[in-house]
Amino acid sequence: MKLTPTKYIWMDGKFKLWKDATVHLITHTLHYGAGSFEGIRFYDTPNGTAVFRLQDHIKRLFYSSGVIGLKIPFTQKQVCDATVELLRKNKTKSGYIRPISWYGEGHMGLDPSGAPVNIAIACWPWGAYLAAETIRVMTSSFIRIHPKSTRSDAKINGHYFNSVEAVLEVKKAGYDEALFLDFEGNVAEGSGENIFMVKNGVLITPALGSILSGLTRDAVMSLAKDLGYKVVEKKFKLADLYKADEVFLTGTAAEIVPVRVIDKKTIAGWKERPVTRALDKAFKAVISGENRKYKKWLTYIK
Ligand code: PMP
Fold first, then answer.
1. What pLDDT digit, counting tens, does each position of 28-47 carry?
2. Cα-flanking dihedrals φ and ψ of residue 260, to 5°?
3. Which of 191, 211, 252 best tests ligand 1's pocket when mutated (most atoms within 8 Å of CB)?
């Protein structure tokens, strides 16, 4: 997906021009994938630009960095403040933010000890991630990374080859997005989204264990409870998913995306999808600042 550059990128405490925010070839993370990153959205609301769940995303960035022993030389608050300042300087009203921390130049070999630690934040305008209003999903022949192979609940750069490979596979077959099963054959998540199904008015989503603990997943679970739906986190199989009344994916980039087809099977209630529509409406009320209960999730750029 081609993106439109903004003017500045924050890198190691300084604002650099987009074109100058580069890294050296001998950058540890480029070779071995031991970096961590986040994806955050910011929205144009009636009260100005607002970042959704900034502190929670930065907290997860620090958690993921900690998993690979990477000590970010800033506090979470400093990184949040730098994000706000970046949006202010770039004057972008809505879009996507990419904080990233990595092991830098001059150290090779798998042990990153002693390598310099770098951190940067970029942002750019970004519309819908999955272009269609409803999507067709294919189960990948690759499984989601095994939770005993890596700390699969962290957002580590190298983990994403698993997703890239699955996306390449399903796009080749003409589908919009990949679905992973876990190592036990349970439904896990999308390449960059969590998954929910609705059955008889109950929302069911895979329990944590093999998936990323998505912040949109968390938001949707809260909103569903507010709307009076029962939410269950449990293991389930593809056969259950095929029989669901509604299925949708959730993620920062994708937001809430209704699924029409999974592996050639049409989801019965994809067109009406009353629960998905209600949740989408509720989510929009949160990100626009209309729902005051969740105003703590919005950081306004003044
Ligand atoms: N799973 C994976 C593998 C992801 O990359 C993402 C995107 N961060 C998600 C789920 C959704 O997480 P969130 O709602 O926090 O963006």
1. 999 999 999 999 999 999 99
2. -95, -45
3. 252
Torsions phi, psi for 259 (to 5 deg):
-105, 130
Q: Verify whether ligand 1 is closer than 6 Å to residue 251 (CB atom).
A: yes
Domains of the chain as residue ranges with CATH: 8-124 (3.30.470.10), 135-287 (3.20.10.10)
Given the CA of residue 254, which atom of ligand 1 is nearest to it?
16
Output the residue whose Cα is nearest ligand 1's atom 7: 192
Q: Beta partners for 108?
A: none
Concatenate the DSSP letters of all residues of the chain into one string. ------SEEEETTEEEEGGG----SSBHHHHH---EE--EEEEEETTEEEEESHHHHHHHHHHHHHHTT---SS-HHHHHHHHHHHHHHHT--SEEEEEEEEE-BT--SS--TT--EEEEEEEE----SS-SSSEEEEE-SSPPPPTTTS-TTS-BGGGHHHHHHHHHHHHHTT-SEEEEE-TTS-EEEESS-EEEEEETTEEEEPPTTSS---HHHHHHHHHHHHTT--EEE----HHHHHT-SEEEEEETTTEEEEEEEETTEEPTTTTT-HHHHHHHHHHHHHHTT--GGGGGGEEE--
293 is known as an active-site residue: no
Of 63, 212, 286, the one to substitute when testing ligand 1's pocket (max ligand atoms within 8 A of C-beta) is: 212
CA distance 138 to 145: 17
pLDDT tens-digit series, residues 171-197: 999 999 999 999 999 999 999 999 999
- The first and second tokens of residue 300, run together, are 């306004």
Beta bridge partners of 122: 98
